[in-house]
Amino acid sequence: MHPQHTYELRVNFVGETPAAVKCKERMIDWLLLNGVESFVEGELAVDINQNQDEPPRDYYTELGGDQTPLSVYRYSRESLDDLRIKLEHAFGAQIETALNTMETELWMEGWKESFQPFATEVFYVRPPWITTPAPRPGLIDLVIEPGMAFGTGQHATTRLCLEQVGADFQELGTKVAQRSVLDVGCGTGILLIGAKKLGYGRCLGTDIEDDAILASKTNAQVNGVATDFMLGSLPDGETFDLVLANILAVVIIRLMPQLAAAIAPGGKIVFSGLLTEEADEVIAAGCRVGLAPVRQTDLAGWGCIVMSQPQRR
Question: Given a cut of 70, is residue 60 above it in pLDDT?
């Protein structure tokens, strides 16, 4: 069950276009560096159904171009109040903010059509309101309720990561029951739930956002699996056989020493959430802390890297 209300923190950018554009770019960098990876850009209330008898409309100007507002959605009003204070302190008169309250069910109805099922070599991923059968027999059913801006796994980076979980299973078979999995930045929990349905042992998901933990726990219950979720970044002193890090490249590189320390000897880590042109930088950062490249895949301009932790001698 979702909370009754969803809250939106909307940020508008003030001033002439060049200054507003620069401010928006700086804010996005600030959000990412402060762990706020889920936000929406753009005006959501402009009607783009134009009568052909009317003069042509300049939608770019109408939408404000690069000055379009930026919104963060959460179930917790208190967390958005805190974020609002920090943004206003950091950007002052360059921005205007508003906090809006919406009925969650009504808000969710508006974007259901954008979520369609998809299949990988191992999984069939669908939202709960779609009941069409898998395109081929034998696929594992993953029912994922989108939570806020986390998606159902349709983003290329999540697909790539999910495919690597399947590849690890196909390589090891029933041996995965003795393997532990850590999902850093679990979002909806899709990767960890997929691993658990394949028979992996200890499964832990972490995220720095309360809404992600709520979404993950809800989806685990819907899928009938027992997994653990923790608010935070990385657990202290515990290592895992398979670590999943579907997070931004800048965050991966910053956390690389801690991520490497979380991999058990002989274990693997899957990096996704990065552009293909960022792959070399991520691999180099991994090699600096002793990891070895295993394989690399890409999809629609996004990359996925698998690296291994050497066995201890």
Answer: no
CATH number at residue 258: 3.40.50.150
Q: How far apart are CA 238 and CA 264, in angstroms?
A: 9
Please report, for the domain that includes residue 68, its CATH number. 3.30.70
Distance CA 309, CA 113 (A): 42
Give the per-residue pLDDT at 45.
42
Burial 53-79 (b: 16+ CB within 10 A, else e): eeeeeeeeeeebeebbbbbbbbbbeeb
**What token pair was written down for 274?**
């990065």
Give me the pLDDT at residue 222, please.
Answer: 94
Alpha carbons 245 and 206: distance in angstroms, whole number: 10
Kindly report whether the global pTM for this prediction surpasses the value 0.85.
Answer: no
- Look at residue 55 and tell me whether its pLDDT is greater than 60: no
Backbone CA torsion sign across 258, 262, 264, 269: negative
Return the pLDDT at 46.
Answer: 42
Beta bridge partners of 217: none
d(CA 109, CA 124): 23
